[in-house]
Amino acid sequence: MKIKQISVFLENKPGHLSSICKLLADAQINIVTISLADTEDFGIVRLIVKEWEKAQQLLTDNGATVKVTELVAAEVEDKPGGLNKILEIIDSSHLNIEYMYAFTYRAKESAIMVFRFNNPEEAIALLSSKDVKVISEADLFAITE
């Protein structure tokens, strides 16, 4: 139930982000969601794409520094306190969230958040045991089609 994410390290200069997006677009690889974190000199672009292996190879072949990581996606009630409910469950177990971001699609009346945990297997077991719907990669891509 883990989801693969591609992280691309790039210089914080005009045109670098668009060059990555163009490579993927030209290869007909759809970016399902994207996050950009930066410093003054460098940034990390985090992408979820269905064809992550193809995207990884394409970006690497074109000189990008690429890392694949595993995320956990979960439905979060789309109302005040929805995210806090999930965070309280996570906090009670002492799992560490390295980062998180919202997915760009909704599932029914819920939002979808993706989390990078220090221990994704433990996070999946914990969330599932507390009746939090953990989204599989197949389900995540089915929402976007």
Fill in the keyword field for this structure.
145 residues; alpha+beta; VC0802-like; 2 domains; 7-stranded antiparallel sheet
What does this structure look like?
By secondary structure, the chain is an alpha+beta fold. It folds into two domains: 2-69, 2-Layer Sandwich (VC0802-like); 70-144, 2-Layer Sandwich (VC0802-like), CATH 3.30.2130. It is 35% helix and 41% strand. It contains five helices and seven strands, in the order E-H-E-E-H-E-H-E-E-H-E-H. It has helices spanning 16-26, 52-61, 82-93, 120-129, 137-144, and strands spanning 2-11, 31-38, 42-49, 65-77, 97-107, 110-117, 134-135. Strands 1, 2, 3, 4, 5, 6 and 7 form a seven-stranded antiparallel β-sheet that branches. The mean pLDDT is 92.
Helical coverage, percent range: 25-40%
Distance between the termini: 19 Å
Topology order in helix (H) and strand (E) letters: EHEEHEHEEHEH
| Helix vs. strand class | alpha+beta
Helix run count: 5
Average residue-wise pLDDT: 92
Q: Outline of this structure?
A:
The chain is α+β, with helices and mostly antiparallel strands and 145 residues long. The chain is 35% helix and 41% strand. The chain has two domains: 2-69, VC0802-like; 70-144, VC0802-like (2-Layer Sandwich).
Question: What is this structure's SSE topology?
Answer:
Blueprint lengths: L1 E10 L4 H11 L4 E8 L3 E8 L2 H10 L3 E13 L4 H12 L3 E11 L2 E8 L2 H10 L4 E2 L1 H8 L1
Antiparallel strand pairs: 1-3, 1-4, 2-3, 4-6, 4-7, 5-6
